[in-house]
Design goal:
By secondary structure, this protein is of the alpha+beta class. The longest helix has 25 residues.
Amino acid sequence: MKRLTLWSVSTLLMMLLLGPGLQAHAGATLLSAAELAGTTAGVCTTCATDPGAPPTQPPRKKGKTWELVSISTTPATQVGYQLLYEVRNSTRNPMPVSESYSNECRHVMTSGGIGISKGLNVSIGTTYHCARSLTVSFVVSPGTRVKLYKGDMRYFKTYVVREVQAWSDGSTTPTGRTDTGKEENRYSVYHPVENPL
């Protein structure tokens, strides 16, 4: 008997609590298409995609390329020098001197793999020349001599590249492969040094 009474009271309480909600739900009506469009401006904020639009195709693979990630450069150091010539001025008039020389610019990729070769469009071990002409001008003062020295300079660059997968939508994603290459750069500088006779 107690069990029956307890069940009856529980059922009555549930009906009292749920009754107003059931009545409100029972009174809801559907909106017409025009009224819905007027209320939401035709935008569905809970729809994943427009049901009338054709299904989108996933992007297709277009191939793999290598892209540059970073470059680091060491300071230039002098690795050698030589005396080119000496000019003496024992007159009373200044003696201007002006000559053209090559800066002897050249560089070679001393290490690296297929990523460096493709990403930078270079051949490992091949020397590339980038020389240009320099004008060296100075004045030899009366009673002095000038020695012209050529200094041989060198610095290194380290390149890091990574492989990326290209997609038909224009995006790229890294494949996880990287490559590192070291490039040796050399060039010449010219220094006149003046001393008394």
